[in-house]
UniProtKB/TrEMBL annotation:
Keyword Cell inner membrane recorded: no
Protein name: Spermidine/putrescine transport system substrate-binding protein
PANTHER family per record: SPERMIDINE/PUTRESCINE-BINDING PERIPLASMIC PROTEIN (PTHR30222), SPERMIDINE_PUTRESCINE-BINDING PERIPLASMIC PROTEIN (PTHR30222:SF17)
Domain of life: Bacteria
Lineage: Bacteria, Pseudomonadati, Pseudomonadota, Alphaproteobacteria, Rhodobacterales
Keywords from the named record: Signal
A Pfam family recorded for this sequence: SBP_bac_8
SUPFAM superfamilies, alphabetized: Periplasmic binding protein-like II (SSF53850)
Keyword Signal: yes
Length: 346
C-alpha cells in the first residue's frame, strides 16, 4: 500500500471499485485506459445506477485522428497541450459553464484566460507536477537546487527526461527563464530548444512511462530524472532513497488534463454534464490522489491536508510554476518537430 493510500484510506471507494456495474449506453467516454475505474465515477453511479460506457486510446493524436475519421463519442479526456488542435479540427464544442456545479471552485491557476467566459472548450479535471526526482544517497540536495543539473557532466549518462514533448519543453522553458509558454516568442522557443540540445548527450535515455522510470532509478542506472509526481510515492513505498525537488531555482511545472465536449455525440448531453460534475465533485479528491492525480477543484484538493499533498508531490511551493496550459497549434507542432530532431541527435 503506497503512502498516499495509507494517508487517505477510502474503504468505501475500495468497495465501490470492486463492485460490478452495467455500462450506461447513453454516454460514451473516450479516454485513457484506467479512467473507467468505477471509483472515479461514484456520483454518476449514485445518480444513474451504472457507469458510463468507455472506449480507449493510447495517445491524443491517435484519438484525434479516430474522431476526425468519424468515430463518435460524447466526451473525451485530453491534456491541455492538445486542446487548440482539437478545437481547430472542429470536433469539439464549448461546455456551458453554468451547468458545471463546481466551476467556481476550479483552481484559477489551471484555467487559463481563454476559459474565463461563460463557455469553455476545455475543463481541467486532473493534474500533476513534474520536477526533479533524484537518488538522495548519491546526489546531494545542492546539486538539484537548479535545473541546470541536467547539464552537469558529473551525471552524464545517469540522467533521463520524459519522451514527451510537453514535459520536455516545460523543463526547457523553465531552465531558460520562461514560465508561460502560451506567450512564448520565437526567441524563447529557440532558447528552450538549444537547451534541450545541450542536455541530450548527458541522457541515459528518454523514459516512456512511470514504470520504466521507477525501474531505471531503482536499479541505479539513473540518478536524476525530470519526473511526474506519481514516481515519488511509488519509490518511497519501495523503500528507495528518493527526493522530489519542486523548488529548484527556476521552478517546476504542472501538467493538466480535462474533458472536452464532442460535437454530435450519440448519447445524452445531460449525462455528459453529470459525468463531468461527478468527476469534479469534492468527494472525488481522495480517489484521484490515491491514483496519483490532483483534482482541479481547489476545495477538494485542500480537503486532503498538507501531509497527503506532500506525500503525493503536490504541496504548495515557493518557486516559479509553468502551468502546461493550452498553446497554439503552430507552437506545439514546432516543438514536436524540433523534439524529434533533438532526440535523433540533430
Amino acid at each position: 500500500m503506497n503512502t498516499v493510500k495509507t494517508l487517505l484510506g477510502g474503504v468505501a471507494l475500495t468497495v465501490l471499485s470492486g463492485a460490478a456495474f452495467a455500462e450506461d449506453q447513453d454516454l460514451l467516454v473516450f479516454d485513457y485506459s484506467g479512467f473507467e475505474d468505477p471509483a472515479f465515477h461514484a456520483k454518476y453511479i449514485e445518480k444513474h445506477g451504472d457507469t458510463p460506457s468507455f472506449a480507449f486510446f493510447g495517445e491524443e493524436d491517435e484519438a484525434l485522428q479516430k474522431l476526425v475519421s468519424g468515430f463518435k463519442a460524447d466526451v473525451s479526456h485530453v491534456c491541455a497541450g492538445s486542446v487548440k488542435k482539437w478545437e481547430e479540427s472542429g470536433i469539439i464544442e464549448p461546455w456551458d459553464t453554468s451547468k458545471i456545479t463546481d466551476y467556481a471552485k476550479l483552481d484559477s491557476n489551471l484555467l487559463g484566460s481563454d476559459v474565463a467566459a461563460d463557455s469553455a472548450y476545455f475543463i481541467p479535471t486532473d493534474f500533476g507536477s513534474t520536477a526533479i526526482a533524484y537518488n538522495t544517497e548519491e546526489v546531494p540536495a545542492e546539486d538539484v537546487a537548479s535545473l541546470q543539473v541536467f547539464k552537469d557532466p558529473k551525471y552524464a549518462g545517469r540522467m533521463t527526461l520524459p519522451d514527451n514533448v510537453d514535459d520536455a519543453y516545460a523543463l526547457a522553458y523553465l531552465a531558460t527563464g520562461t514560465t508561460d509558454w502560451t506567450t512564448a516568442t520565437d526567441e524563447q522557443f529557440e532558447a528552450a530548444s538549444n537547451w534541450l540540445r545541450e542536455v541530450h548527450p548527458n541522457l541515459r535515455t528518454y523514459w516512456t512511462d512511470p514504470a520504466e522510470l521507477s525501474q531505471l532509478m531503482a536499479t541505479g542506472e539513473v540518478l536524476i530524472s525530470w519526473a511526474w509526481n506519481e514516481t515519488y510515492p511509488t519509490l518511497v513505498d519501495e523503500g528507495f532513497p528518493v527526493g522530489f525537488q519542486r523548488e529548484a531555482e527556476e521552478g517546476s511545472s504542472l501538467w493538466l488534463c480535462g474533458y472536452v465536449n464532442l460535437k454530435d455525440g450519440p448519447g445524452s448531453e445531460d449525462k455528459a454534464y453529470d459525468y463531468l460534475n461527478g468527476f469534479l465533485d469534492v468527494s472525488n479528491a481522495e480517489v484521484l490522489m490515491d491514483a496519483g492525480y490532483g483534482i482541479s477543484n481547489s476545495e477538494g484538493l485542500s480537503s486532503l491536508g498538507l501531509e497527503a499533498l506532500e506525500a503525493g508531490g503536490l504541496e504548495p511551493i515557493d518557486a516559479p510554476i509553468l502551468a502546461q496550459l493550452p498553446m497554439s497549434v503552430e507552437l506545439r507542432e514546432k516543438q514536436s518537430e524540433e523534439f524529434e530532431k533533438i532526440k535523433a541527435g540533430f
